[in-house]
Amino acid sequence: MSGHSKWSTIKRKKGANDAARAKVFTKIGRELAVAVKNGGADPNVNSKLKDVIAKAKQNNVPNDNIERMLKKAAGETGGADYEEIIYEGYGPSGVAVIVEALTDNRNRTAGEVRHYFDKAGGNMGNPGSVTFMFSREGVILIEKEDVDEEALMMDAIEAGATDFLSDDDDVFEIRTVANDVGAIRDDLEAKGYKTISSEPAYIPSTYTRLESQDDMWKMSRMIDMFEENDDVQNIWHNWENEDDYEG
Asked: Angle at Cα 133 formed by Cα 137 and Cα 10, nearest 5°?
């Protein structure tokens, strides 16, 4: 996933081809494996696993696939040992980028990430080089259709949300403390709301606007390269006018 233009990314993924959907399934399978390894195969006692299962459903992973992934993760012995790594850097014209990865080969992934930054005319930075420009928050998106805004806002605040945004034409955006996103999602879904995305996110405090079509093309291509890489789980950035680029 990439931000801050989160909803446009989700819409793009909803219309993705089979190859792109397979990539999403692979990434979620990896997250399931790590969650099971770290906390067990029961989502009732493993909140991280519960969150990943919710993410799988939000990304239209069929229930049969989820069950197979869980059985594989629970039964694996001596399989790949995935490591969570955060990479930071700058894209064209100083766009700040954070890349979240799950990898079984740190050297391979670092080399590929560095290559993507270089190819876009940017550069990979040291830890802490851009994270200071972002805050870590939970983000829940709910489609606006057939939803009463005032009722949802009150329900979200009652559940513990820290902010409620309705500027987007298509979705309501609910902000939470990062560690509370799963519990608040569950509370809202119990009240009948359908969440289309719910996860901790890096929210930019400042944004960078790209003026040239060349920079926009390079930035868009860099995002695509990251999303096509099986090791990359999420990419966050502060490109302000991503929606203006039509490719």
From this structure: 50
